[in-house]
Amino acid sequence: MSSLRIEPARSPWPRQLPVAMPSLAVDIPLLVTLLLVSGLGLVVLYSAAGGSESAVIRQSIRLGAGLAAFFVFAQIPPRYLRLWTPWVYVAVLGLLLGVMLSGEIAGGSQRWLDLGIIRFQPSELMKLATPLMVAWFFHERTLPPAFGHLFVALLIIAVPAFLIAEQPDLGTALLIVAAGGIAVLLAGMSIRLIVAGAIAAVPMAWVAWKFLLHDYQRTRVITFLFPGDAPTDATWNIWQSQIAIGSGGTFGKGWLNGTQAHLDFLPESSTDFIFAVMGEEFGLMGLVALITLYLVLVGRGLWIAVQAQDTFTRLLAGTLSLTFFVYVFVNAGMVSGILPVVGVPLPFVSAGGTSAVTLMAGFGMLAAISRHRKLIGP
Amino acid sequence: MAGRTQRLKDHWQEHRLFLTRVIGAAVVVVLLTGALVWRLVHLQVVEYERFSGLLQRNQIRVEPLPPTRGLILDRAGRILAENIPSWQLVAVPEALEDFEATLQSLELMGLVDPVNHAELVDLVGSQRSRVDRVTLTNLTEEQAATFAVRRYAFPGIDIREGLIRNYPYGEAAAHVVGYVGRISEGDLERIDGADYKGTSQIGKTGLERAYEDVLHGTVGYREMVVNAHGRRQSLETVPPGALEEQLPVPGQHVVTALDIRLQLAAQEALAGYRGAAVVVNVRNGDVLALVSTPAFDPNALAMGMSQSDYTAVRTDPDEPFINRAIGNPYSPGSTIKPFVGLAGLFYDTAYVHEDHYCNGQYRLPNSSRVYREPRRVLPHGETTLYSAIVRSCNVYFYGLGVDLDIDGMEPFMKAFGFGARTGIDIGGESAGLMPGREWKRSAFSAREDQSWYQGETVSAAIGQGYVEFTILQLAHATAAIAANGQRFRPRLLTATEDAESSELIDSPPVLLAPVSGVDEADWQEIHAAMVGVTTDERGTGRAAMDGALYSVAGKTGTAQVVGLAQDAAQPNLEDVEERQRDNGLFIGYAPAENPEVAIAVIVENNGGGGSTAAPVARKVLDAWFGTEEQVFELAAN
Asked: Cα separation of A375 and A77, whole Å?
C-alpha cells in the first residue's frame, strides 16, 4: 500500500526500542493531504490576519511543530502506545487537577499550564488521552462490551470531561465526551442501549442546563435556538460571519479581497471564524475544496481503522478520524449558522498552538497504525 | 501474556461488528457533510444577493454633509448673522478609556458644563451607536487653547473645527434676528429629521426661525467605507469612484429691510430703558428697525449657554427675552387720539366741527361719573380737534368717544390693523386688543361683566382701559395715516440671495386692505394736527423735535400702568413704585410733507411720552435723516 517501507516479517515482538527505527516512511495520502490543508490554511490566514506575515510565520512554526509530532508518533509502534496509555491518561488527569488547583489559588479560571518555555492546555492532551484510554480498556475485553464495561468506559470519559467543564471550557469537554462516545459506539455498544442513552440524555441535559452551564453558555444556546430579528451583541458575530460567507458567492471575491475581516466586522477572524474568511474570499468552491480535503483525511483514517488488526488500533484509528470530523463539522457548522457558538478551531487553518500539535500527533498515530497494520496478526 | 488468553474472543465477529459501525459512521459523516454543503449553497448561491446587499449596508456608511447656513443681511448688505469657524470638543468612543473620569476632569477644567454630564455619558456610552465622534460642547478660542496644552492627558478626546453662528451686532438685533440653538425634541416635530443630519443647530426665534427653511439649505451626503468601529477606511476593492456623493446646497441668504445703523441708533436711544421702537417704510412696509430693550446676547445662546446663565436671563425681572416691539401689547394712551379724531371726521359727527370747552373734567351724560384730566394738566379751555390733538386734551376725546360710541370706534380702528396681527414675517407677534361689545360678551363669563359700559368707551377714546396695541401696530397704523390709508404688511425679508450664484429673488411688498372712505381733507386735517404736535408752541412733542432738519408729524402718549398695585408678590417697594410709573409713547412720521418713514416708540415706567419716548424717536429719526452737526461736518469736508 502506501507505506514506503516494508517491514520484514519477524517476531511480533521486536527487541529494539521504537526510537531505534526512525523513518520518514509514513502514510503518503495522510501526509500529502495534511500538507495541502496546512498550506491552504496558511494562505487563508495571511488574508484573515490582515496581510500579517508574522502571523503566518508563527502559524508555520506551530504547524512545523505539529508535523514533527506527526513524524514522532508515526514512529511509535501501536503496541507501545497501548502499553503507555494508562500512564499517559493518569498523568494528563493529574495535570488537569494541577491546573485546577493552581487556578483556584490564583482565584480565577485556569486552563494553561506554564512550563516556562511553552504553555499548553492539558485539556488539549486529554483529547488524545481519552480515546486512547477507552481503546485500551476495550482492547482487553470482549466486544460488544458488557454493561459493566460500558460503565467503566463512561467513568473514563466523564471524569476528565467534568474536570474540563469546570475550568470552564465547555467546548473541549463536549469534544472529549464526543471522542469517548465515538469510541464506545465503535466498540459495538448495542443499539438498544444507544436509544436508551439518548432518552436518558434528556434529563441529563436538563441537569446540565440547570446546574452546570454558565450564564454566557446558556446565552449562546438561547441565541442559537432563538436568533430573533435584531442583531444583539450575542448574535452579532454569527450574523457577520454569515454575511461574509453569503457575500462570497460561488467563486468568492478573490484572495485578500474579503472585506468583512479587514474591516473588523468578523470577530476572531484568524481563529474561530477563519472559515467565514475563506468563504468570502474563495466562495462555495473554496469551501467545498477544503471540506473535500478534510473528508479525504477522515476517509483515509477510517480506511486505516478498518484495516487495523487489533481492537486497540481499530478503535483508536476510528475514533481519531471521526473526532477529527466532529471538530471540522462543529466549527464549520457554527460559523455557517447551523450550530451554536462553541469555541472550536478549524483544524490546521485556525491560528492557534496546541490544537495543531495534538491533531497532528493524532494523525501520527494513524500513520503508525497504517504502517503496522500487517505486523500484528490475530 | 495476559493478552493471549483474550484471543479466545471471536475476532472475526468483532471485526465484522466494527466494520458495520464504521460504515454507519461513514454514512453519518456523509449526511452531516451534505447538510453543511447544503447550508453553504443556501448562503452563497440562493441568498447571495441578499448577503451582498447586507455587506454593502454593513460597510458603506452614508455620511451627511451639512449645508452651510445662509447669512442674514441688512438692506445695505451688512451681515447680521454669519458662520465663523469654531472649535468643538469631540469624543472618539473607540479611543476612550474611562469616559466618566475624563468627563469629570473636563468639567473641572471648565470646558464642559456639568449639567450635561448624564446626557453625555448616555450618548457616548450607547453601544454600537457606530458614530465615530460625539460632539461634547463648543469651545471658545481660549478654551480650545487650554485644552490643546493638556490634550495628551485625554485619550479619545479631540478638538474638531466646525462652524458656529455669529451675530456681529449682538444684542442690538437680538430679538428681530433671533438665534440658533441645539435642535430640541420640539424642533424635531416640525422638521424632517433627514434634512438635519449632520446639523446640530436650528433657528429658535426671530428671522432665524421664520426663515429656517430658506437659511438651512439642503443636506448632502457622501458614502464612505467604514470598519466595524465606524472609522473611515479605504479599500482597494471599493474605488473612490464607486462611492456616491451628493454635495450639499448651501442655505440662501436672507436680505432684510433692516438698516442696522438705524437699529443701533434705536438701541442706543433706548439704552437703560425697558422699551421698544419700530420704524417702518411708509411706502412699502419695510421694517427698517425693530428694537426691544433690554436684550440678550444671541452669541452666547448660539455657543451654548450654561444652565445657570440661561436661568439668570430667563428670570431677570426686566425679561430680556420678551420682544416688546411685537409680543407685548401696551395701552396706547393718547397716541390713539389722531385715529379717534379721524374717526370723528370719517363719520362726520357734528362734535368735531364744534368748539368744546375743557374745564379739566368730563361728566358722562345721564351719570354722575366724572373723568378728569391727569394731575398737573391745566384745563385746556376752548378746544378744537386740532388743539385737542396738539395739546392732548382728554376731555375733548371723552366727549368725542361718547359721541362715536364704541360701535363707531371699533371698526374704524380695526381698519388700521389694530387688534389683529399685522402679519410681520417673524413669530411671537401679539394681536393686541381693540375691544367692542362682541369681544366683551365672549371674553367674560360673569353676566354683569358681559355688557359694555359707556365709561369703557370713555377710556377707550384716550387709549386706556381694555385697549392694547403693539408698538409694531402703532408704527404700521401711523404709516397708514401718513399714506392716507394705504397699508403694507410689515416685512423684514425683502429678497433671498442664492449663496452660490448671488442671484437675488425679490419679495414684493404686500398691500393690505386700505383705510378707505376718508376724505382727502380729513386726512389733511389730521396731518396738520400731528404736525402741530411737534411745531405748535403748545405741542406736546415740540421740545423733542425742536431743531430737526426734517419735519415730523407725531403724537405723544402717556399711558397709566394699572394692576401692578394689587400685585402683593412684588418684593421690593422701590421696585413696585418704579413699575407703577406711566409708560411714555410716541408715534410719528417724517418728513411730514412727503412721508418716508413712520415710527412708534415706547419707554416703560418713566413718565410722559413727550419727555421720554419722543426724544428717543428724535434720535432714531436723526439717524435716518441726519443731524445739523452731520450737515456741518459734511460742509466742512
From this structure: 10
- Among the partner-chain residues A257, A302, A338, the one whose CB lies closest to the CB of B237 is A257
Contact B233 A260 (CB under 8 A): no
Cell matching residue B597? 418713514
Q: Is residue B125 part of a domain?
A: no
To the nearest whole Å, the CA of A120 is away from the closest chain B CA by: 30
Question: Is A6 domain-assigned?
Answer: no
Q: Are B52 and A247 an interchain contact pair (Cβ–Cβ within 8 Å)? A: yes
Task: Note whether B314 and B376 are same-domain residues.
Answer: no
Q: Which of A316, A312, A367, A354 is nearest to A72 (CA)?
A: A367
**Which site among B44, B50, B61 would you substitute to test the A interface, given the most A Cβ atoms closer than 10 Å to its Cβ?**
B44
Is there a domain that residue A47 lies in?
yes
Domain extent at residue B201? 59-93+163-228+251-256+295-325
Same domain (yes/no): B190, B89: yes
CB-nearest partner of A243 from B11, B41, B54: B54
Judge residue A347's burial from the number of C-beta atoms within 10 Å of its C-beta, 0-12 exposed, 13-18 middle, 19 or more buried. buried
Residues pairing with B554 in the sheet: B588
The answer to the question of residue B344 being in a domain is yes
Q: How confident is the model at residue A197 (pLDDT cuts 50, 70, 90)?
A: confident
B88 vs B227: CA distance, rounded Å:
24
pLDDT along chain B (637 residues), means of 10: 50 87 94 96 93 83 86 95 88 77 86 80 61 74 84 82 90 95 79 80 93 93 78 70 85 96 96 96 96 94 81 89 95 96 95 90 84 79 93 94 95 96 95 95 89 92 95 97 96 94 92 94 96 94 92 94 46 63 94 95 91 95 86 74
Looking at the 3D structure of chain B, how many domains does it have? 2
B576 belongs to a structural domain: yes
Subunit contact B29:A322, Cβ cutoff 8 A: yes
CB contact under 8 Å between A295 and B54, yes or no, is: no
Q: Containing domain of residue A224, as a range?
A: 24-371
Task: Give A233's contacts in chain B (Cβ within 8 Å).
Answer: 127-128
Q: Which helix (H) or strand (E) covers residue B162, if one does? A: strand B157-166
Which pLDDT band, with edges at 50, 70 and 90, does A376 fall under? very low
Is residue B405 a contact partner of residue B457, using CB atoms and an 8 Å limit? Answer: yes
Angle between helix axes A311-335 and B11-41 (nearest 10 degrees) is: 10
For B127, residues 6+ apart whose C-beta sits below 8 A from its C-beta are A233
Active-site entry in B86, B292, B331, B334: B334
At A325-347, the pLDDT tens digits run 999 999 999 899 888 777 788 99
Neighbours of B563 (CB within 10 A): 7
The cell for B449 is 361683566
Interface test with B, best of A80, A247, A319 (most B CBs within 10 A): A247
Q: How confident is the model at residue A81 (pLDDT cuts 50, 70, 90)?
A: very high
Cell numbers representing residue A287 in the block:
469551501
| Residue B21 included in any domain | no
Residues B513 and B544 in one domain: yes
Given this model, what pLDDT does residue A150 score? 86
The pair phi, psi for residue A201, each rounded to 5°, is -65, -25
Check: CB of residue A311 under 8 Å from CB of residue A291.
no
Residue A26's pLDDT band (cuts 50, 70, 90): confident
Active-site residue flag, B501: no
Are A329 and B36 in contact (CB < 8 Å)? yes
- State the smallest CA–CA distance between residue B97 and chain A in angstroms: 20
Give me the number of domains chain A comprises: 1
Across the interface, of B15, B25, B41, the residue whose CB is closest to A322 is: B25
- Residue B378 near residue B360, CB atoms below 8 Å: yes
| C-beta separation of B405 from B413 below 8 A | no
The verdict on B317 and B439 lying in the same domain is: no
ipTM rounded to 2 decimals: 0.88
